């Protein structure tokens, strides 16, 4: 095959993979997600907490040839924020929400470029599509480091996703002693997340309350995700 045809075929394949990613994670302009987020610590049975709500809206999706994909711009608004009396104000996480952040969709994977969700590690994909049970991404064949190597460990295997939807559970280690569990629903996005530090109790949680996808709004009353806490 001639070089020009090879380049065209590669471009078409990459475009198809990007379209697949967008069908799984609808990062098109106008789509909105409202989340309740929590930060808990101290006594596991009676934790101090911060609880806040965010509205996250995709405002643009543009080609990014230099990055080999497309970049979505997300705007985040904090709708509410409350803390228990003993919660340390200096640990306030709502104030770290970035009003604007950016997401790269490259081929079949999604990368958070900035904002509180970004790992700060170059080349780390948060999601790769299509998901299948047992899938793994970010594995480095030259390293045994498990951090941010994502594993798809279940499909509709628990009650923590929306009823009747296709929900996948993914898991990674996010630093020494820290695990990160996510529940991702095809065509909706992240519906629940639990990050837990084992040793001293420290837990961050996220749960989807409402989403507007392609002009259709759906409210959610999800069963709160549970993982086995390790003191």
Account of the 3D structure:
The protein is mainly beta and 231 residues long. The chain has 1 helix and 13 strands. Strands 1, 2, 3, 4, 5, 6, 7, 8, 9, 10, 11, 12 and 13 form a 13-stranded antiparallel sheet that branches. The N terminus is likely disordered.
Q: Could you say what the CATH architecture is? A: Beta Barrel
Radius of gyration: 18 Å
Outline type: globular
- By DSSP, the count of extended strands is 13
Number of H- or I-type helical stretches: 1
Averaged pLDDT: 89
Strand content: over 45%
Protein structure class = mainly beta
Poorly predicted segments? 3-13
Reading off the top of the CATH hierarchy, the class is best stated as: Mainly Beta
Question: How many domains is the backbone divided into?
Answer: 1
Query: Which percent bin holds the helix content?
Result: under 10%
How far is the first residue's CA from the last residue's CA?
Answer: 60 Å
**For the report, how would you describe the main beta sheet?**
13 strands, antiparallel
CATH-assigned fold name: YmcC-like fold
The succession of helices and strands, N to C, reads HEEEEEEEEEEEEE
Topology:
Blueprint: H1 3-24, E1 32-42, E2 47-64, E3 69-83, E4 100-106, E5 109-112, E6 127-128, E7 136-137, E8 150-155, E9 167-173, E10 178-185, E11 189-197, E12 202-213, E13 216-219
Antiparallel strand pairs: 1-2, 1-12, 2-3, 3-4, 4-5, 5-6, 7-8, 8-9, 9-10, 10-11, 11-12, 12-13
């Amino acid at each position: 095959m001639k070089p020009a045809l090879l380049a065209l075929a590669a471009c078409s394949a990459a475009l198809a993979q990007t379209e697949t990613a967008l069908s799984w994670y609808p990062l098109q302009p106008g789509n909105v997600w409202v989340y309740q987020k929590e930060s808990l610590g101290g006594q596991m049975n009676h934790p101090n907490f911060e609880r806040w709500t965010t509205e996250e809206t995709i405002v643009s999706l543009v080609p990014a040839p230099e990055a080999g994909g497309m970049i979505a711009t997300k705007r985040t608004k904090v709708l509410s924020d409350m803390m228990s009396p003993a919660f340390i104000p200096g640990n306030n996480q709502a104030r770290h929400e970035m009003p604007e952040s950016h997401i790269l969709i490259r081929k079949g994977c999604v990368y958070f470029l900035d904002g509180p969700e970004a790992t700060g590690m170059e080349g780390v994909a948060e999601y790769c599509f299509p998901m299948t049970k047992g899938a793994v991404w970010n594995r480095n064949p030259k390293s045994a480091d498990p951090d941010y190597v994502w594993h798809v460990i279940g499909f509709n295997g628990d009650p923590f996703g929306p009823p009747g939807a296709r929900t996948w559970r993914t898991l990674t280690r996010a630093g020494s002693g820290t695990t990160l569990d996510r529940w991702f629903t095809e065509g909706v996005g992240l519906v629940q997340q639990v990050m837990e530090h084992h040793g001293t109790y420290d837990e961050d949680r996220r749960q989807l309350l409402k989403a507007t996808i392609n002009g259709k709004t759906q409210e959610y009353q999800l069963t709160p995700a549970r993982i086995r806490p390790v003191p």
